[in-house]
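Model: You mentioned two targets. I'll fold them one after the other.
Researcher: Yes, keep them separate.
Model: Target one:
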Amino acid sequence: MLIEEQRNFQVFPSIVPANEESEITIRAIDGRILFYDDITYDIQFIPSEESDVPIDDKLTLRGYELSRKTFSVRPQNGVIKIKYFFSDEQRWGIKISTQEYEKHENPLIAKIPTPIWQGIKKPPKDGVVLYIYSLYPDLYNKRVLRGNLHLHTNVSDGRESPVMAAARNRAAGLDFIAVTDHFLYDGGKAAREAFDFETDFKVLVGEEIHNTYVGNIHLVNIESSKSVNERFLSEPDVVDKEAMALESEVEIPEGVDKKEYLYRVWCYREAKKYGGLVIFPHPYWAIAHRYHVGPKMSMAILRNGLCDAFEVVGGPSEAKNNLQVALWSELRAEGKTIPVVGSTDGHTVLFKYFDSSSTYVFADGDDIKGAVLNGYSVAAEHQENTPVRLYGTFRLVRYARFLAEHYFPMHNDLCEASGNAITEYISGNKEMKPIVEALEKRVLDFEKRFFGRN
């Protein structure tokens, strides 16, 4: 959730390279503090973690503030521009205040004795704190995208078409989705074809793999060159023979079903043969009064590399997500590193919580699959009336936390307008195409300004 007061300001860029000097441009749009060219503003840069000034000799609680430098700046045409050297990778507060604001206040305020009215004078004097983030080069040079890597449409058991699912997920603020219908691989192609306008929104093709129509195995396979389900459905006897032949080379972990484990090995190898991104989903999904995958099998899958990533949060069930996060934490304690994603496993965009989970990726360009495979992803859990919960490595989570509070709220507002226009366009109003393209450009332009990539 964005700190509401900060909607009254524009700070560009909000992401800067660490250990370099950068120029920051700040505009006051509205509110109790505006920028006037005829008064001086005091500005301080406050690092949140690693201080760039020494603490006082007595190590007092506010000892760093005693050494902090204050810059005096006058705006030009209502805009403040200031340069600073941003050390280390961290969030920075930019505190802006002034003692000269009275000349621009309503003169009647000074004549009103009521303390509440006198409090109107406090904001300019107390100041406002705006925020930016400095990053080391490997992360600074990556794009930030948010999406859903596991959802279903009416190609299988979902309610809406892939085209409508894509439009409504764009309106929910996502930058990409993977259409992963049961049994069928290329449901997402229809959405790609329908989005015949200039857009940066990505639709990935995929499938949820099952060992035939009533199969116990569930694996998400994204952007492979061929469908694994197609082999299961067209030649089940051949698949069974190939899977069981793996017994001679594969060690079966203690306490798991041999045939299920061999089938899982076969599924993973088959998907990787075609270049897919393989995600292990929802082990704690409850079906027939039991969990879908027991802890021994789940641990065997994750420990032995039978997936590329773990769907650590999936959908609105806090209890299920809690257990999956605990499972992942246990693996981390063992020293096992595995990328995480958040997905909805959604079957409709009409459900109140259809956007309850998502994945943040930090990608080289548009390479979403590569970002996950290389561990540049964070799982996000969006519960009602609760700040987003983020799971991943500490470095990525603290950066993602900044983005959740300062980037995505405004990004999502722009996406909502665009997604609504796309919905009208795909529903038959072809006159909306230039409007859609203008709104999509606005989303991309905001990204470029925020990350300093003009």
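Model: Target two:
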Amino acid sequence: MRRRNNETATGSHYRVIICPASTGSAVVRERFIPTMLNSPKSQPPQDRLEAIAALRAAVEDIMAVSGYTYDESGAIHLRGRLKLPPDQAYRPLRERVERAGYTPFLKDQDGVEGAYELTAVPGVIPRTLPDTRVNLWLYIATIVSVVFTGTQFGNSQTGLDWGAGLMFGATVMAILTAHEMGHYIVGKLRGAPVSLPYFIPLPIIGIFGTMGAVIVQREPFEDRRTLLEVGIAGPLAGFLLAVPLLLLGLSLSTVQALPASGNTLIFGDSLLTQTLGVWRFGPLAPGADIVAHPILIAAWFGLLITGINLVPAGQLDGGHIAYAILGQRAKYLSYVMIAIFMALALLLSESWLLWAILLLLFGRSHPPSLNQSVKLEPIHFALALIAVLVLVLVFVPNPLSGL
């Protein structure tokens, strides 16, 4: 799929995700380190036996404690049996443990069937309300940036094509907003303290006018079910909107013979765009290609974002899904994806080198969930399979090139 452009294209890059949508959203998640609050009531007792006794008393109506240990970091490990299923026990446990000045992590006790280990880490995660004005101004700035950038995708021979800019910008922002709100709405429904999306305008050096957006997760996910559901919600919402917009863009595009010379920007095909292109236009004659309408270019970009986000590595959306399924073993899949990106950079597009470096530096591992005892249900494995199928359909091995 190609787009002839009468002006020289500026440098490109997608969005840097370490969450929902750098050429992705991902939810940006930082490694969790509990911080102590200044409030005296949240300071844990200094005497270890006093602290252990306070924690045991706090959880006794939910957990029958049979043993404990502590370590030099101040963490206290309580072992025993829960009086409620783990998915019902964690939130009341957390409320009680936080009142004692700790943050609880729950997991199955190694080697003991039906027993659990609660690790109480000193400190309580502070909960503050963010200033949403920042989100609003970044959103407005990104709209302006994307519309301005989209003017280069029109047919005007005399200047900027604002009609093309508006169509391109509206399509890109619709897909990105669907992606980010998928994360946000599901996160809120599951009780995850996710922020509103922070959109990232890139008006000068970016060919698409944005690096996407990020959602900040202020603490670890409660459990793997929540992690998987929030992780897949963004790409799935963006995909479901991008596909009909892609079809609309194809219906507005034409097939023309490419000029012998001139600036031409080539948008690489995924399995989906190639299949739908053939369905719309049939096999193309030698020397001819699709001259993409601005809506088609924007939908292509939205699907590119979806594909990169679903790569199962680090803290990309696909990395969240992989961790939900594989746990700590997901880090080995991250190494495989880093190797694949490096190979793609050598063989097809140098842009993948940046992604390989980013994943190598920041995205090899994933923070644990707070409640690791909750098991996935069949629906979660079905969602993970859907994520893999969408990734196969929309991933673009060679996104951009010039002819």
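Researcher: Noted. Anything on target two?
Model: The two ends are 12 Å apart (CA to CA).
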